[in-house]
Structures are given as structure tokens and as C-alpha cells.
């Protein structure tokens, strides 16, 4: 079983990036003119870290799972003390039970956390706790307290923060930076910060309509897990120690809140089942879901049926998947995740009506991102780039910050041998992924292809000039003292 969440490769990438970041003029923490670590600096640091996290293969960019977590996160964050704070919620593919907050409002959630939670309120409790670390500016407050001239730059700090939120392997690797290891140890949140995040997180849970007892129950189960967990305590306990006193404090505060029985949204159970069907050993997953249905041992019958259907599809048992899908579809009202799974079965089995299935599902759920992605991918695989472009362009009209849509667009143009258009789309994807320099390079390559008409070439040249100005401004702002 893999136990890391951010591998050493990210450390190497960050170490390689330090000279670049320094060249852009990020301020030194030891500079006496830096009276405080500002929200703008936090966001800049978070963006620096996220550029490396997104490159890692364990960055889990599954549309259905991510969108579900984003819905939960936004629901909680909207009840926070500062609605101006921006948040981005993302997934890490790792069986360890963990979640973590990065500077600037970036919240990472492990797949293992969702699979371990027994209710939606339990999972939401952990997310609310991490949101509270951001809204209370705990990382910034720790950094402000250091005021140490030994620090190199915010780039070195990025390495330390990744180490602090990770496990001992990453911390050992961070020791190569010397003072980074010291900060890594200090970035493990203090008991006072943990209690504050618990208190604020409980308030977020209640205001967002979740059961505050979910946080209590999850932390109690985590604490019990330390006695039997293979290899020691779960990752979450290593960075967020849960003591008897802390649990008692959460219990006392939760008891003062109004009792409410909150049913789980069906998508919570479907997402949990999807992850188990995707990542558990295939035979184990099929046996788990089959035994659960036979013995009526499950949190949700529909969730178990979804998991069994998905596992059978993964095993390419199309007849079995179709049979279970019929029972699944009959067990609950129309649901986007379920309809998407049905289309995936037809596509994988080579059914002639697979494309019609996607079209009908998109009519019923026009805003469902996973359907757009799956249908577009199917059209590209079938070498129907014009049809794929129609789907992508319709989605881009209202979601023009989605980098994956531009990547699909680039592939479609490549199939049509439109080199300038291909590289323009690739450039727009890179801009939204936070790499303006890479976008500039793509536009330069596209312009050299010379296969666009006068208007296309003029538009590409204008965009190139715009991005060069943006790149220069970003470098200038990075160099300016905050």
C-alpha cells in the first residue's frame, strides 16, 4: 500500500524552481520591511505550490469526485467569516486518511478520507476544519512569528509547507534545505490553532446545514484507529494531533448546538463507491459490493449497486454491469452520476447507441462536467473532431476558465491539421493552469506554422502581445516589496 501523498519528485521540482522564483523577486522573509505575511503573499505562495502539485501523477483530476468535493467545500466556505476569501478544493489520489490546507485558500483532500468517512457530515467536518485554518490565517500567523533572517525566500518556504503537510519521507527530504526542516516542524499546527479550527469549523458545519456531531464521530474513530493502523497513525493525526482533551472540547461545543438529523446526499455514497471500485484490488472490490448487497450490509443500497456496476465495468464484464445498472437505475431518482455510468458501459461495450446515450444524458444534465468530458473524449476517439468542437465550444460559452476544455479543443484542431488553432488552444489551457510562459511559447510555435488566415494570425499575434504584457506585470509585481 502506498503511503505517500506528495512524492519526492515534487521536492525536486520545487528545488529546481527556486532560482526561477528568486529571479522573479519574491520577498525574503528575513527582510525587516516585511511587517506581515500579507494575503497577497499567501496567494502567491499557494499558486507556487499548486503549480507543482498539479504536475504530480497523484493529483486526482476526476470531474465527478472533484466537483462533489467542491460543492461541499463551497457550501461550507460561504458560511465563513470572510466571503471574499477565494478557495480551491482539489483531490489527491492516496489511500491515507488526510486533508490539508495550503496558503491562499487551497484545500487538498485525499481519496482515502472520503472512503473512510461514514457520513457526509463526517467528511464535511474535516473540510470545515481545513477551511478554518485558512480563514484564521494560521500559516501566515506562524510565519509572522518566525521573523528569522535564516530564511531564503518564499520558494524555500513552499518546500517546507509541502513537507509539513506530508509524511516523514517528505520531511526528511526537506532537511536538505537546512532551515526548511526547522520551519517544517513548526508548521505542524499548534494545539491552540487546532482548537480554533475545531471551533470555527463546527460553526461552519452548523451554518451549512450539516450535523456538527459528524466532526466528533470522525475524530473519535481516527483516534481509535491509531491502535490498529498499519505503520502507525493515519496521516491526518500526524499533522493534526487529536487528543482526548480536544475531542472533549469538540463534544462540549457540539452539544450546545441544536440537534439535527441530516441525511446524506446520495452523491456522497456514489462517490465513495466509485473510489472503492476504482482503486481497490478488482476482485476485492467486486466481492465487497456483492457481499454487502447479499447480506444487506451497507450504508446505502444505491451506493453499493453503483460500486458493483463500476467494478464490473472495470473488469469488462459488460453483461454483469448492464444487469446491475438496471437495478441501480430503478433504485433511485434520475441522477447524473448514474446516467454517466450507464453511457460509459455502452461506450466500453461498443454499443451503437453510446453516442446517443451521451447526447440524451447531456440534455437531462446540461451542466454536468463529467458528461461533457466523456462525450468529447468519445468523439475524439471516434475521430469526429468537428462534433467534439461543437460540444466544447458550447461549454466554453459559460465556463471559459476550464483548462481541460481547451486541451480537448487543441486535440480536435490537431486532428483537423489546424496547427495555429491547436497551439492557440494549448496556450489558453496553459494560461488557466498558471503557466503564462508556456502559453507564450505555444503561441510562438503556432505562428511559425503559418497555416492560419489573416484574421487568425492577427488574433494570435494580439494574444501573444497581451500575454507578454501579463508575464512582465507578474514578474514586476513579484519583485515589488509588499
How large is the radius of gyration? 24 Å
Topology pattern, helix = H, strand = E: HHHEEEHHHHHHHHHHHHHHHHHHHHHH
Mean pLDDT, rounded to whole units? 82
Low-confidence stretches: 1-35, 148-152, 167-185
Query: What is the strand arrangement across the widest sheet?
Result: 1-3-2
β content, as a range? under 5%
Strand segment count = 3
Q: What's the N-to-C terminus distance?
A: 44 Å
Principal-axis shape: flat
What is the number of helical segments per DSSP (H or I, 4+ residues)? 25
List keywords for this structure.
482 residues, mainly alpha, three-stranded mixed sheet, disordered N terminus, 25 helices
What is the strand and helix layout of this fold?
Blueprint: H1 8-23, H2 39-53, H3 63-77, E1 88-92, E2 99-102, E3 106-110, H4 111-116, H5 120-135, H6 138-146, H7 154-164, H8 168-174, H9 179-186, H10 191-207, H11 213-225, H12 235-239, H13 244-255, H14 266-279, H15 282-294, H16 301-314, H17 318-330, H18 336-349, H19 354-364, H20 369-381, H21 385-396, H22 403-415, H23 419-432, H24 436-449, H25 454-479
Parallel strand pairs: 1-3
Antiparallel strand pairs: 2-3
Describe this structure in words.
- A three-stranded mixed sheet has the order 1-3-2.
- The chain is flat.
- A hairpin with a 3-residue loop joins β2 and β3.
- The protein has 25 helices and three strands.
- The chain has 482 residues and is an all-alpha fold.
- It has a domain at 8-255.
Brief rundown of the structure:
With 482 residues, the protein is an all-alpha fold.
Amino acid at each position: 500500500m502506498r503511503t505517500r501523498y506528495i512524492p519526492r519528485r515534487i521536492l525536486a521540482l520545487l528545488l529546481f524552481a527556486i532560482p526561477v522564483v528568486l529571479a522573479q523577486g519574491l520577498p525574503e522573509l528575513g527582510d525587516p520591511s516585511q511587517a506581515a505575511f500579507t494575503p497577497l503573499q499567501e496567494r502567491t505562495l499557494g499558486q507556487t505550490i499548486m503549480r507543482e502539485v498539479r504536475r504530480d501523477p497523484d493529483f486526482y483530476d476526476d470531474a465527478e469526485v472533484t466537483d462533489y468535493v467542491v460543492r461541499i467545500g463551497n457550501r461550507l466556505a460561504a458560511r465563513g467569516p470572510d466571503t471574499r476569501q477565494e478557495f480551491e478544493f482539489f483531490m489527491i489520489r492516496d489511500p491515507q486518511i488526510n486533508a490539508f490546507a495550503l496558503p491562499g485558500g487551497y484545500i487538498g483532500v485525499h481519496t482515502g478520507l472520503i472512503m473512510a468517512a461514514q457520513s457526509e457530515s463526517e467528511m464535511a467536518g474535516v473540510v470545515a476544519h481545513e477551511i478554518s485554518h485558512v480563514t484564521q490565517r494560521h500559516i501566515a500567523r506562524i510565519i509572522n512569528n518566525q521573523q528569522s533572517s535564516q530564511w531564503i525566500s518564499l520558494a524555500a518556504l513552499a518546500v517546507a509547507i509541502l513537507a509539513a503537510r506530508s509524511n516523514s519521507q517528505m520531511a526528511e527530504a526537506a532537511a536538505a534545505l537546512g532551515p526548511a526542516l526547522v520551519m517544517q516542524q513548526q508548521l505542524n499546527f499548534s494545539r491552540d490553532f487546532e482548537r480554533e479550527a475545531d471551533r470555527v469549523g463546527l460553526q461552519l458545519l452548523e451554518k451549512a446545514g450539516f450535523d456538527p456531531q459528524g466532526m466528533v464521530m470522525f475524530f473519535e474513530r481516527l483516534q481509535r484507529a491509531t491502535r490498529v493502523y498499519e505503520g502507525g497513525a493515519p496521516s491526518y493525526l500526524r499533522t493534526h494531533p487529536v487528543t482526548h482533551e480536544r475531542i472533549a472540547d469538540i463534544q462540549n461545543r457540539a452539544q450546545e448546538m441544536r440537534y439535527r438529523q441530516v441525511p446524506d446526499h446520495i452523491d456522497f455514497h456514489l462517490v465513495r463507491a466509485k473510489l472503492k471500485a476504482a482503486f481497490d484490488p478488482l476482485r476485492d472490490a467486486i466481492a465487497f459490493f456483492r457481499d454487502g448487497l447479499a447480506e444487506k450490509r451497507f450504508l446505502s443500497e444505491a451506493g453499493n449497486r453503483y460500486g458493483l456496476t463500476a467494478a464490473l465495468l472495470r473488469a469488462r464484464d459488460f453483461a454483469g454491469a448492464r444487469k446491475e445498472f438496471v437495478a441501480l437505475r430503478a433504485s433511485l431518482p434520475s441522477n447524473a452520476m448514474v446516467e454517466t455510468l450507464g453511457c460509459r458501459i455502452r461506450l466500453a461495450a461498443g454499443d451503437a447507441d453510446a453516442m446517443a446515450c451521451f447526447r440524451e444524458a447531456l440534455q437531462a444534465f446540461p451542466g454536468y462536467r463529467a458528461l461533457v468530458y466523456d462525450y468529447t473524449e468519445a468523439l475524439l476517439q471516434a475521430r469526429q473532431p468537428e462534433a467534439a468542437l461543437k460540444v466544447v465550444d458550447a461549454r466554453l460559452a459559460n465556463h471559459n476558465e476550464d483548462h481541460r476544455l481547451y486541451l480537448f479543443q487543441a486535440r480536435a484542431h490537431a486532428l483537423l491539421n489546424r496547427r495555429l488553432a491547436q497551439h492557440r488552444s494549448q496556450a489558453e489551457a496553459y494560461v488557466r493552469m498558471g503557466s503564462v510562459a508556456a502559453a507564450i511559447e505555444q503561441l510562438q510555435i503556432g505562428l511559425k506554422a503559418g497555416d492560419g488566415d489573416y484574421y487568425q494570425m492577427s488574433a494570435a499575434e494580439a494574444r501573444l502581445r497581451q500575454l507578454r504584457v501579463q508575464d512582465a506585470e507578474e514578474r514586476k509585481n513579484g519583485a515589488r516589496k509588499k
